[in-house]
Structures are given as C-alpha cells and as structure tokens.
Amino acid sequence: MDPIIRFENVHFTYPEGEEEILRGVDLQIEKGSFVAVLGHNGSGKSTLAKHMNAILLPSSGKVLVRGMDTADEAKLLDIRRSVGMVFQNPDNQIVANVVEDDVAFAPENLGVPSAEIRQRVDAALRQVGMYDFRMHAPHLLSGGQKQRVAIAGVLAMEPEVLVLDEPTAMLDPQGRGEVIQTVTRLCREKGMTVVLITHHMEECIGADRLVVMSNGAIVADGSPAEVFSQVELMEREGLDVPETTRVLHELGLPTETLDAESCARLIAEKLR
Amino acid sequence: MSEIRVEALTHVYSAGTPFEKTAIENISLSIPSGQFVGLLGHTGSGKSTFIQHLNALLKPSSGTVYVDGEDINKDKKSRRAVKNKVGLVFQYPEYQLFEETVFADIAFGPKNMGLSKEEIEQRVHEACGFVGVEEELLQRSPLELSGGQKRRIAIAGVIAMRPGVLILDEPTAGLDPAGCRQIMDNICRYRRESGATVLIVSHNMDDAARLTERLIVFNRGTVAMDGTPEQIFAQPERLVEIGLNVPQSTALAMALREKGVQLAGSIYTHAQLMQALKGVGAC
Predict the structure, then answer these.
(1) Is residue A246 part of a domain?
(2) What is the C-alpha separation between B233 and B255, in angstroms, rounded?
(3) What is the CATH number of the domain that holds A76?
(4) Helices (H) and strands (E) in chain A, counts
(5) Residue B243: its chain A contacts at CB < 8 A?
(6) Is residue A252 part of a domain?
C-alpha cells in the first residue's frame, strides 16, 4: 500500500538558524495506522509534525502527502485539507463562543454548503463525545473537553490524517486519558491515520508503531514493545520506559508485553 | 523552617449566589517545620483552593490558618507578612515572567520586601544556584529562553524571597522527562539546604511516591487519606476508588498479587518491587 505521508531524506534548518533541526529523516506513514513519535524537548519531533501539512517546508529533501509535494504551492490547500493539526494549548485553538460554532469554523471557511456543515459538525462532535456540549461556552469546559472540541474542529474538515503535537501536555491525567482514548477510537473505528507527538511514554503504548526522535534523526522505529525493550537506548535518550518493560528486562524475561496484566501473568508463570 | 496549622478550614466560592460551591470543607491538619509533603487529588478536588489559603491569597469562609503559631488572617499586617514567609509557585509560572531581564524578574520579590541592593543581589545569585540558572542568563530577556529555563527562573523568583514554606502547584506540568527530573532535583536541593517546609501538588504519582515524606490525598473538598507514602500505597485500592492513578510499580504489584504472587510490604518504587520479587525467588 502507498504510504499517505512520505519523508524523503528531509533536512531542516530555520532561515536564520545555524543548527540543523532535522538531519536526514526518512519516514513513511501507512494509511489508517496510529503512529506515536516520542522524543525529549529539542529532539525535532514538533518540527517533524509541522512538515506534515506544509507549515514548514524542508530545506532539502521532500515531504509527500498522498503523493503531493508539500513544496508545491498549488497543492497547499489540498494538503492542509488532508492533514489536520491539533496543538498543545487548547485555549489557543478555540475561536468561537459556542462549541458548535467553533467546530463549524473550518468548513465555513472551506465554503461547504450550510446543510452539510450542520451534518459535519454534528458528526465531528459525536466522534469526540462532545455532542451534548454543542451549545456550551468553550471557556467553561475542562482542558480535556476543550482539546476534544479542537479535535472535532479538525475532523469537520474531513481530513485523512490527524497530526497531534503534544495534545495532552497541558492536561490532567483524566483529560489526557480522554484525548488518547478519542484518537485511538478514531483510528480503530473510523480508519483515521493518527500521528501523535508526545513525551509521555504511557501514551504510546496503544499505538501501532513508535518512532523515537533524537537530535533531529530517527533513532528507533518499531512496535511500542520492540522499541521499549531497548531499555539502554531509551535511558540514553532521557526517556522513560514502562515499569512492566523494565521489570521484565531485569528478570531476563521477553519484553514483548506492556500491560500490567499480561506482564504479571508472565512473571507468575516463571515462578510456578 | 515554618510550620502550618489549619483548623476547620472551609471555603465557599460565590457564597449566596446561584453559583455557590463549597470547594473545601472542614479541613484540619498540621504540617511540621521542614516536612516534604505531596498533595494529591484530581482536578476539582480542592487542593489548589487549599494551598491558596496558606499564604492568605484566599480568605477562609470559616476556620483558621496558623503559620508559626500566628493567625495569618488576623489583620492586614499579618496577611501581608505571611506572603514573605510562604512562597507560592503557581501552575505554568513562566507565563508570569514580565521583567526585561532575568535578573529583574528574580529580584522582583526581594525588592518588594524592601531589602538593600546588596542583599537583593546576593539572593538572586543564591536562587540561581538552587535552580541551576547560569549567571550569563541574568541580563537576557526571560522571554527568549526555553520553557524549562523560564520555569526555573519563575521558581527562582519565589526562592529568592527565602520562604520558610515553599508551595508548588504542579511544577513539572508540560515538561519532558529530563526537564521534570531537573526541576524535582532543584526543589529537593532547596529543601535540603534551606530546611524549608515544602508542599508540592502533583499528578505524577511516581514522583510523589519517591520523593515526599507525607502524602495528603484530597477528594471532593475533604482530606480522604493522609500518611507516609508507605501507608498510602499500602492501600492502593482506595486510591483507585477515588479515581487516582497509582505508581506503575504499585499497579504491577497489584496485578501480581491478584495472580497469587505473595509480595511483601508496601510497594511504590521500582527498587521495592524488585526487592519483593527477589523475596519470592523471581530473581
């Protein structure tokens, strides 16, 4: 299958910057997959995300979205429509005084007929579990609810890829759970391609694929269990690994499981 | 350095209006000088309302707060005096940086205390040392620094007042793992070297378990649990009931015990879990 997003040897340096932020990234993202990108601050993971819908353009190399080169200005609108972005701070992404108006903002600007806007807004709000709040004022919602409204605003554009750049960094544990569950469901049930940029390792556990960035390059890429089992590499990168992986690793057991339940089963079997 | 005693503290927001809400109700507790306390509880449990009473930012609807034996709401003078004694670092304090230079920002608190120029200078340098801010940053604008640096500068601004009680509301929120570790190290170091009482509000159970001596768990405006990490994590089911996470090691220990593995003791760190596993012959 053709990848929906393809990075070909992408290098990036800010116009006045001296340091190279991306140093030769090759990456293909399959349609319908849930890919988590983990890395510490300054690893280049947000810069990578901003290349996915032409907010930033490569200094050299190419980014292709559904085969369209992001450097091709004539394709810009198509690319932005295909790849929706959600950012860290929900307060910076909400523009209207009523939840449903906020979600309608993007389709209105795309010139979608009003009957269809109505239908898209309702569908988007249902998908993130915020339909009952459609007449509420966004500033009275919790952080997790606001972030779900922001996701609905992107969904109303009917994109094929949802890129989330640290969407949970400012949320409490409950809000974080809400956002991660929402995007996981969008991927599993609606076939949405999800790219989640984060520095919380626990948010990567349910992804199909985990990519670790360091110093502008990809240093690990595989299933979450495969990547976390490289305990020494993760420690060197200043990243956490799940306690389950750490314990299995130290007990010399296979580290292919991440949840406490199956990890406990493995250990209990060993003891028997 | 300073001790806190809270008696029957209740706070009602918007009393007498249709929006009336009791945020905390009848809380009594005392925190001895020099203790390192973690405050846990989910959003809306009352912990932020509670800490804002400890330096008279909020006035109790009823009840009394004593710092070093004095009622901090006795009169205007006591309300002002307690602000120098109890330093409060809010969530995302980097949004409150406003001066032109890092130096001026950190010096803002000491300056308002009416200290001499030399004394202010000394305190700024001392505070920088505690949080690991390099001296060459002092003349830069705080707005051009990284998120982690800004956060440390904001904390330094409170430390420069040499508070006897340092209270931090989620000091590591939004930082990456390396940034979290650095901030927590800075706080531990300040406490060790100054002897200050430290209260920290945290959603990170692993940090709370590892670093503090006492945990106070808030739930629906009251104190649901209060004890050493050992005592608190000996009853992980209660935490789960309240809707809080438990440290990852505790969760794994719970799953193992359910499978009939007889792990000894209260488990809330990786080392404890490995020790207990050793005890049953797993390694």
Answers:
(1) no
(2) 14
(3) 3.40.50.300
(4) 10, 10
(5) 174
(6) no
